[in-house]
Amino acid sequence: MSNTGMGMRGKIIFYEDRNFMGRSYECMSDCSDMSSYMSRCHSCRVESGCFMVYDRTNYMGNQWFMRRGEYADYMSMMGWRDCIRSCRMIPMYRGSYRMRIYERENFGGQMYEMMDDCDNIMDRYRMNDCMSCNVMDGHWLMYEQPHYRGRMMYMRPGEYRSFSQMGYSGMRWMSMRRIMDSYY
């Protein structure tokens, strides 16, 4: 039996207009470019699972974590000026969580291994910045401000040698949280 819950699927429905009006598009997996399905998206309903939505195609730009629920006017809620252009389903995970964060790019500088949430890396580790990481287990959200606020970035297992080369130049990641939602 897999830790990722491969048999479980998420489902999100996107609507062209606010309040679930206009044409809709159902999605049960990753979608790198929603423009072939709809020209705009201003509301959505997550029926099952968790998703990251992005304001640019190919999982780029601003990101927002969405769990089961209704988002009748997500643009006001998130402060976005543009609409959702791509989405990624976050697989269900029931294992341990482990991530190494590094002060500098290419895994340089101070290193700390995390196995639980951290609401402020400065307070906990006396670390001014996090510029690279290695996610060994689990799925995580990183936030630009302490206490899980500000812009966020979804991290799945893998090596992330340079956040600036990923398009996050000048951003500081100050808090991290495990994605542990029971969402199916």
Notes on the protein architecture:
It holds the Pfam family Crystall. GO terms for molecular function: structural constituent of eye lens. It comes from Parambassis ranga (Indian glassy fish). Belongs to the beta/gamma-crystallin family. By secondary structure, this protein is mainly beta. It folds into 2 domains: 80 residues, Gamma-B Crystallin, domain 1 (Sandwich), CATH 2.60.20.10; 86 residues, Gamma-B Crystallin, domain 1 (Sandwich), CATH 2.60.20. It is built from 2 helices and 14 strands; from the N terminus they run ββββββαβββαβββββ. Strands 2-1-3-6 form a 4-stranded antiparallel sheet. A 4-stranded antiparallel sheet has the order 9-8-10-13, with no helix packed on it. Strands 5-4-7 form a 3-stranded antiparallel sheet, with no helix packed on it. A hairpin with a 3-residue loop joins β8 and β9.
Distance between the termini: 17 Å
* CATH class (first level) name of the largest domain: Mainly Beta
The radius of gyration computed from the alpha-carbon positions, rounded to a whole number of angstroms, is 17 Å
Shape: elongated
Q: Helical stretch count? A: 2
Family: Belongs to the beta/gamma-crystallin family.
GO molecular function: structural constituent of eye lens
Keywords: Eye lens protein, Repeat
InterPro entries: Beta/Gamma-Crystallin, Beta/gamma_crystallin, G_crystallin-like
